[in-house]
Amino acid sequence: MPVDMKKLIAEAVHTLLIEKKVKKLTVKDIVEECHITRQSFYYHFEDIPDLLRWILEQSKEEFMREARNQREAESALRYFFLMAINALPYIKKTVQSNYGDEIERLMEQQTYRLFEQLIEENNLYQGCSRFELKLVIRYHSQAIIGILREWTEEDTKNLDQIVHGVYLLMTGGLSPTKTADAEK
How far apart are alpha carbons 29 and 32 in whole angstroms? Predict the structure, then answer.
């Protein structure tokens, strides 16, 4: 059976960061971990940031496949949070490595693209100008990244409430005027 070399290399990165707690990720470490040559690594990836981009892109594509299977947008958002929570240890280790700035930038780009793709596929925000749409996507993607950056065990216990609140914020179901009206 053919081995998917890109996946093998990605698994080696995961092992190095999570199990072996490597702070400085190098091509040498990666090729030694997966028992391949440097030439094989460079055949599949231009460099480590290219590898990290590929890993994030694969995660985004996996999420999009699953999101399309969800019957409701809130269920898809919940799935996104679950994927992100499960990836947090890996992301934190990657951010602590010598590619921290790169991975932060890539995560922001992928999250933005994810929301952009979801909005396009579901024909959301049709009344918005292109400028307004970009602002909405930027706002929501950065807000969710911020929530995940500060994620706690207590948040995990309250996952459904958080997802519901974020969903309401994203769809206009929770706003200062609606909150003020509810209090009256």
Answer: 5
